[in-house]
Amino acid sequence: MEDHTMGKKNKWPYLFCLPFIAAYALFSLYPMLYSLQLSFFDWNGIGTKTFVGLQNYITLFTKDPLFWKALKNTVILMAFSTPITVFLGLVVAYLLFDISRGKRLYQTVNFFPYITTPVAIGFIFSYLFDWQSGYANKLLTSIGILDEPFYWLNSETASKVIIVIMIVWRYLGYYMTIYLAAMTSMPMEVYEAAAVDGASNLKIFTRITIPMLRHTTVFLVITSMIGGLQMFEEPKLLFSGWAALGGAQTGGPGNTALTVVWKFYNDAFNLDSKLGYGSAIAYSLFMIIMLFSIIGFKITGRGEKES
């Protein structure tokens, strides 16, 4: 009798999980499996589907140089923005950790960009670096660094630099918050012992704080790599905000700001939509993200073993 009652009670957790499982299967799992199936077809979303097998993937990797350019741009932007954001987030968190007055204010100010609407961020940065009315040109010309306004958004190198600045500015507060949360769980006895031994703040930071935050850093680096390979909002909105009034082209000058997700968006949802080809791009990016994640885990895991 007791076992029968326990069996009935054990059904309730599954019943409570059922709405989430049903919603996930309907709105996430089914679209993912359907897009995988769609990657083997040629379809524009309206007409008849034509099975093409692996042709979409073959075309993508052998006959579409724009895909490789987009992948190169994405990796470059990720490679520059990730270490800068992680390092600055750690430094800012360390500086704010021991502040007694105004700590909440500083944390809030640094976290505001993370919750700012991406569309607003795109308009802000495209306006700041606008050729004619941007404050960057006004400042640099007023102090004599530039003789004439510089066309930032028409330069391949400057476009990448601006996107990196956007990413760092937007996500710095998030990284700072994660590091601050990790620092609050560290034992204070270690810091007190180091202070008694006469260790300087620099040695405490490099010999104690950084090693103890290793797992947090690994988490942030891996998630940054995954998010960086899915980069879309920053470059897309930069060249669709204020810069769009000047007729900025898709992908930036010479497609130097084109990312893989932006290319997927253009191929799958433009006027001449190719949903099958777009699905092939999405699943190719999924495999690339898996590869980068495995490499990242191997590198960070090896570093932990050596330490």
Automatic annotation (TrEMBL):
InterPro entries: ABC_transporter_permease, MetI-like, MetI-like_sf. The chain crosses the membrane at residues 12-33, 75-97, 109-129, 161-182, 212-232, 275-297. Keywords: Cell membrane, Membrane, Transmembrane, Transmembrane helix, Transport. One of its GO terms (cellular component) is plasma membrane. It comes from the Bacteria. Pfam families: BPD_transp_1. Residues 71-296 form the ABC transmembrane type-1 domain. It is found in: Cell membrane. It is a multi-pass membrane protein. SUPFAM superfamilies: MetI-like. GO terms for biological process: transmembrane transport. Belongs to the binding-protein-dependent transport system permease family. This is Sugar ABC transporter permease.
